[in-house]
From TrEMBL:
The keyword Transmembrane helix is annotated on this UniProt entry: yes
Keywords: Cell membrane, Ion channel, Ion transport, Membrane, Transmembrane, Transmembrane helix, Transport
RNA-binding keyword on record: no
GO CC, one annotated term: plasma membrane
Protein name, UniProt field: Uncharacterized protein
Intracellular or extracellular location(s): Cell membrane; Membrane
Length: 100
């Protein structure tokens, strides 16, 4: 602070171009900030602490993780209904479910 003093805008030091931006699996909810001055042995330092709050969108995980995992398990169970003498087709289904 002896060489450089940072003064943040008193009403809103952080601006976002678009408040409705969205990530594939998160939605932006809130932004909070806090101005601090930290005192260290080398001197005092200005700090602006910013916290972004996001809400998780569960549809992404249901479609991309859970649904595909359940589908792979269901496909692996098909091999139990195939005739036991038809070994190549059972092996192909088992290997494909493991690879998926």
């Amino acid at each position: 602070m002896s060489e450089v003093r940072l003064h943040w805008l008193p009403w809103n030091p952080v601006t976002i171009a678009n408040d409705n931006f969205q990530l594939p699996d998160f939605r932006f909810v809130n932004l909070t900030f806090e101005r601090k001055v930290h005192h260290y042995a080398s001197g005092s330092w200005d700090q602006l602490q910013i916290s972004f709050t996001f809400k998780r969108l569960y549809g992404f995980y249901v479609l991309q993780a859970y649904l595909l995992a359940y589908l792979a398990v269901a496909i692996s169970w098909i091999s139990f209904f195939i005739d036991s003498k038809s070994l190549p087709s059972r092996i192909i289904l088992g290997v494909n479910s493991l690879m998926a």
